[in-house]
Amino acid sequence: MLAKLTYFYSVNAKSRSYKLPTKTKNKTENRLIYMTTQVVKKHMVVAQNASGRNMNVPIYRMKGARPGPTVYIQSSIHGAEVQGNVVIYHLIQRLKDMDICGEIILVPNCNPIGTNIKAGEYTLGRFDPVNGTNWNRGYFFDKGAVEHFAKTVTREESIEGIKQRFRAHLSNAIDNKLAEPWGLGLAQQLNLKLQQMAVNADFVLDLHNGPVSTRHVYIPEYAKDSAKLFNIPHCIFIPNVFAGALDEATFCPWWTLQESIKTNLAREISFNVEAFTLEMGSQEVIDFNEGNIDATSILSYLNAKGVLHECDIKPKAMQRLGVYLKDYKTLFTNWGGMVEYMAKPGQTVKKGEPLAQILNIDDLDTDNGSRTLEAPCDLIPILHFPSASVLSGTQLYKVFTNYREL
Ligand code: ZN
Asked: How far apart are CA 20 and CA 344, in angstroms?
């Protein structure tokens, strides 16, 4: 039987107290002295390797002295998608000098297994290597249980009261799942342990990357106003459908609860819990300067949500394009071969214009030596496959169709 993995906190954290960052004027030197928000660092065991040794993730907690929302941010659940780690680095460095309302929990490199699965020059960080499951599909949501919970809500119960009870309910359900006597796969164990931290958050940000990609963000349809709070040019609005990812596992319960209470009691409630998957450019790339720009984008969202006190970071005036998930299309290739990706992520492409040119090794001496793949309609490529050699049936591009300006 699998050894039951339990939470383990290391004792790196010397102090559990938090200080309010205050601006005080030093009279003798006549300059501003900033006291910083403390970072409390712990580690949590998420797996054991074949030598029986624990594999940990770091958890950075930054708590302000003022009350406010709880924020949960993680990066690199897909091991090759590393840019989010440098974004979290910038966030921590900048938040130290800021006045936080509530608490921000940051978990960089939240999948220490995925990041370390290398094949030559590449990181194979998308799937649990033991069971083959996607690392971002094992989070928990039980629609029936949420609908059942909704029946216990009365007309008089306060929103705060409902939130508190519902969080306890979700946390308990995740604990039960983790204690499953038949055990769980590697990816699902990792997912549920991370979700147990995210479950108490009002705002959850899961930082990813595309293969070769422009920056884009997945936004639940009910929170579409928040699209303009990030400085991200491409926005995908997603319905209340659960497919196993962390953002869905966060917003589906609250969305379902909201809808069920409306049906049962004709009571309109907004819990103001939001979750997003942010795609910060291309995998296998770290860019410190871009990371700082990405951090500003996240800070502008957090500021708009009341997480930062007396902060002047605002969303940028910029063009933002949005699509519904049904209009975010995948283009497969029916041919194998060697590909030149002619259309770049973010570029506007008209129907019939070339997207890619594919070289056929068996026909180099004929007119079929190369074939052009054309855009089936007006579109914007958001990402493309990272390798030039492809098999038939490869997802070559993911594109915006029927997009509109927000
Ligand atoms: Zn990803």
From this structure: 46
Tell me how far apart the alpha carbons of residues 377 and 369 are, in angstroms, rounded to a whole number: 25
Cα(61) to ligand 1 centroid in Å equals: 23
Question: pLDDT tens digits, residue range 328-359?
Answer: 999 999 999 999 999 999 999 999 999 999 99
- The neighbouring-strand residues paired with 4 are none
Residues with CB under 5 A from ligand 1 (ion): 78, 81, 208
- What angle separates helix 246-265 from helix 186-198, to the nearest 10 degrees? 60
CA of 406 to the centre of ligand 1 (A): 25
Neighbours of 367 (CB within 10 A): 7
Q: Specify the pLDDT at position 35.
A: 56
Contacts of 31 (CB under 8 A, 6+ apart): 25
Measured CA to CA in angstroms, residue 364 lies from 119, 359, 370, 387, 391 at distances of 31, 8, 8, 21, 18
SS3 call for 228: helix
What span, in angstroms and rounded, lies between the C-alpha atoms of 46 and 8?
9
Q: Which residue reads 């570029």 in tokens?
A: 347
Ligand 1 centroid from CA 150, angstroms:
32
Q: How far is the CA of 162 from the centre of ligand 1 (A)?
A: 32
208: Cα within 13 Å, side-chain hemisphere: 24
Q: The tokens of 13 are what?
A: 């954290």
Summarize pLDDT for 44-53 with one digit per residue, the tens.
999 999 999 9
Q: Token digits for 367?
A: 């007119």
For residue 8, pLDDT over 90 is answered with no
Q: Residue 32 above 70 pLDDT?
A: no
Is a pLDDT exceeding 70 seen at residue 2? Answer: no
Give the Å distance between the CA of 52 and the centre of ligand 1.
28
Ligand 1: centre distance to CA 64 (Å): 30
Could you tell me whether strands 66-75 and 203-210 are parallel, antiparallel, or unpaired per DSSP bridges? Answer: parallel
Give Cα 47 distance to the centre of its chain.
21
The neighbour count for residue 141, using CB atoms within 10 Å, is 20
User: 210 CA to middle of ligand 1, Å?
Assistant: 6
Tokens 């984008």 belong to residue:
297
